[in-house]
Amino acid sequence: MDYQAILNVIEKELEHFDPGGKVPDYIPELAKIPADKFGMHLYCLDGKNFSFGDHDERFSIQSISKVFTLALAKKHGGKKIWKRVDVEPSGDPFNSLLQLEKENGIPRNPFINAGSLVIADILISELENPKEYLLDFVREISDDPTIEYDEKVAASEYQHGYRNIALVNYMKSLGNIENDADDILDFYFHQCSIAMSCCQLAKAFVIFANEGKTLITNKKVIGANSAKRINAIMQTCGFYDEAGEFSFRVGLPGKSGVGGGIVAVHPGQYSVAVWSPLLNEKGNSEKGMKALEELTSLTGLSIF
Ligand code: GLN
C-alpha cells in the first residue's frame, strides 16, 4: 500500500474543505490556536511512517489522554474498575451530567468526562505519583522524553472547569469518588493538557494496534487483551454522541479531543493521528473525521 500517495491525495482534496464549526472557547488557551492547522501522520507496525502538513506541531491532546489513563488503570486497578465505570456508549455530550443521577453515579464509559474522572480517582488511589507516572508512560510509548504537560492549558481549564468540578463533586456525593475532588481535577486537567504532535500520537498509539507492544522495541507495556478491550471501547464510545457516525464513516476504533486531534487504530496494520482544530457541535474535529474517512475509503481497508 502506498500510504504516502494516499495521504498526499487527502491533503490535496481537503486543502479547501471548509469544515465550519469553531475552536473550543470554554478553554480560553485553546481558543488561541489558528483554525487552519492541518496535519496527519501514520505509523505502520514495521516503523514505516507517512505524513503531511502540520504533523510535527504539538497541540493539546485533551480527551485523547483518556485512552492512556484507561490503559494505566487497567494495569494497576484491575477488574474492579468495571464496578465503578461502565462500557456502554452514552449517546450524550462528553460533559453531560444527565445520566449520572439515574445511574447512581456510575459513568456510562471511561471516555466521557465523568468516566475519566473516576479513572483519575483510581490512579490517584493506586499510584504514588500519578502525574509523573502518566507522563513517563506516554514518553515511553512515544519514545520521546520531551513530551510535557502544558501548564498554561491546565490552568486555563481549571479556571473555567465548572462542569468537571460539578461532575466530580456529584459523583462524590453518590459515593463513586474516593479522593479529594481538587486532587482529581488537578490530575485530570493535566492529563488533558499533554502537548503532542500527530507524529508522537501515532507512534504512541501503536501499542493499541500491536497487541500492547511498542513500536520497534516491541516492549509489551499492556496486555493484548487490554489492547483489544480498549479498542472496543474506542469503537463504541470514542466520539461521545457521534460514536456511531465515526464508526459508520471511518470503520476504525478511534478517540478525539477538543484540541482538534483524532487518533485511530487499525489493529495489525497501523495507527494514525490527524489534527484540525475546528470542532463540530459534538466536539469532534470535522476535517479530521473527513480525512480519516478518506483514508479508509482510498485504501479500501477498515476493520469491517
Ligand atoms: N479537557 C476537556 C474537558 O474536560 C476534554 C474534553 C474533550 O476533549 N472532549 O472538557
UniProtKB/TrEMBL annotation:
Enzyme Commission (EC) number: 3.5.1.2
* Residue stretches spanning the membrane: none
- Top enzyme category: hydrolase
Report the catalytic activity: L-glutamine + H2O = L-glutamate + NH4(+)
Superkingdom as given in the UniProt entry = Bacteria
For whether the record's keyword set contains Hydrolase, the answer is yes
Per UniProt, what is one Pfam family of this protein?
Glutaminase
Q: How does it assemble?
A: Homotetramer.
What PANTHER family does the annotation carry?
GLUTAMINASE
Task: Give the UniProt family note.
Answer: Belongs to the glutaminase family.
Protein name as it appears in the record: Glutaminase
